């Protein structure tokens, strides 16, 4: 009788501590191609505030351009967390983050759960926008509006309230 082989136990993922203030730790990821476009998805670990931006590609240049715009609106985060995608491991992004005084963390390669906040935001975005009708920009705006004024299961509060204070 053959012996039954057991799978090694999975190492549990210890969720990162929720930062005490907004815009302390941001998680980012690319989505796409989806609906004919690429997107940069950014989520604040404290407030769960989402930013979704259409980007022409997943290049470092396109990523930095969007991050520059977002940071000019909300300020610089203390830490940025991403997976090991080519645009996130490039010298250009490392230099951009260094010049802005940000701590930059890459998750473990091939271990999607370690950047689960961004991965979950990508899935939430795709699932919601896929079900909507109308021009893409309008669907994104409706999704973001709805998401930002919906109490989050982790915090019990609205992302807009936690980030903006109202």
Automatic annotation (TrEMBL):
Give this protein's Gene Ontology molecular function annotations: nucleic acid binding
Q: Name one Pfam family in it.
A: rve
Q: What domain of life does the native source organism fall in?
A: Eukaryota
Task: Please give the InterPro entries that the UniProt record associates with this protein.
Answer: Integrase_cat-core, Retrovirus_Pol_polyprotein, RNaseH-like_sf, RNaseH_sf
Q: Which residues form the Integrase catalytic domain?
A: 18-166
**GO BP terms, alphabetized:** DNA integration
Name this polypeptide is given: Integrase catalytic domain-containing protein
């Amino acid at each position: 009788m053959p012996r039954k082989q057991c799978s090694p136990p999975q190492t549990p993922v210890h969720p990162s501590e929720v930062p005490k203030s907004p815009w302390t730790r941001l998680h980012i990821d690319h989505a796409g191609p989806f609906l004919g476009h690429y997107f940069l998805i950014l989520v604040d670990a404290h407030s769960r505030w989402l930013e979704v931006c259409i980007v022409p590609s997943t290049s470092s240049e396109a990523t930095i351009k969007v991050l520059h715009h977002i940071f000019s609106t909300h300020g610089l985060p203390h830490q940025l967390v991403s997976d090991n995608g080519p645009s996130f491991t490039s010298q250009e992004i490392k230099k951009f983050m260094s010049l802005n005084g940000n701590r930059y963390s890459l998750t473990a390669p091939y271990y999607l759960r370690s950047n689960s906040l961004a991965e979950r935001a990508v899935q939430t975005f795709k699932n919601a926008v896929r079900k909507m009708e109308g021009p893409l920009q309008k669907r994104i705006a409706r999704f973001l509006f709805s998401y930002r004024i919906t109490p989050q299961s982790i915090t019990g509060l609205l992302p807009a309230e936690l980030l903006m204070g109202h």
